[in-house]
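sry for the spam today, last one i promise. struct tokens for design, 197 residues
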């Protein structure tokens, strides 16, 4: 398979989006990106980010590809888990404490910080609207997160999410309890347990 064929296959697999760093993993010289731009097969939308001309930019996928430690959380995870009807105005991401984020980027996102030991707790794979894979927290972790961050969450989104979660048939009470202990949120969980169940 030629470099060009490998690149075309990668673009197809990633639903029209490719990062220049993706080519390094497949040992494809980056000059092939420039060639495809010149042939009007790709468009450079930002430094190191390319999409097919007829493709809408998959912002969530691109964000997580560029910033590997971003885990979609809180309001964004609620929306992706169908625990909220509101499309988030800003994506919510959780990063390890001490992560430096540029002012330009932080103005576009809602950033939550967590101790390194809890950063990957409850991570699952989900899909963007463009069917690209992204990492988010599972529903139980998301519920614990919104309980911990109640003051930063819109009241209507918060109460609606708890009610929807309670109606869900796939609640893992063991996980919910385990996470609430780890985050020292048992009291908050008990306070809202009647809304949840």
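last one done:
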């Amino acid at each position: 398979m030629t470099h060009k064929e490998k690149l075309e296959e990668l673009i197809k697999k990633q639903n029209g989006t490719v990062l220049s760093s993706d080519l390094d993993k497949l040992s494809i010289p980056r000059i092939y990106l420039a060639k495809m731009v010149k042939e009007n097969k790709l468009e450079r939308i930002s430094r190191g980010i390319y999409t097919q001309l007829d493709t809408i930019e998959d912002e969530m996928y691109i964000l997580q590809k560029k910033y590997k430690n971003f885990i979609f959380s809180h309001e964004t995870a609620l929306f992706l888990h169908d625990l909220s009807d509101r499309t988030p105005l800003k994506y919510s991401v959780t990063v390890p404490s001490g992560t430096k984020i540029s002012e330009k980027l932080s103005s576009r996102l809602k950033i939550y910080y967590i101790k390194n030991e809890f950063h990957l707790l409850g991570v699952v794979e989900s899909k963007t609207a463009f069917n690209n894979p992204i990492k988010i927290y599972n529903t139980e972790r998301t519920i614990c997160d919104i309980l911990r961050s109640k003051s930063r969450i819109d009241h209507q989104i918060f109460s609606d999410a708890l009610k929807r979660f309670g109606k869900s048939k796939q609640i893992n009470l063991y996980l919910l309890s385990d996470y609430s202990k780890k985050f020292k949120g048992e009291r908050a969980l008990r306070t809202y347990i009647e809304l949840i169940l």
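The chain has a mean pLDDT of 91. ok im logging off now
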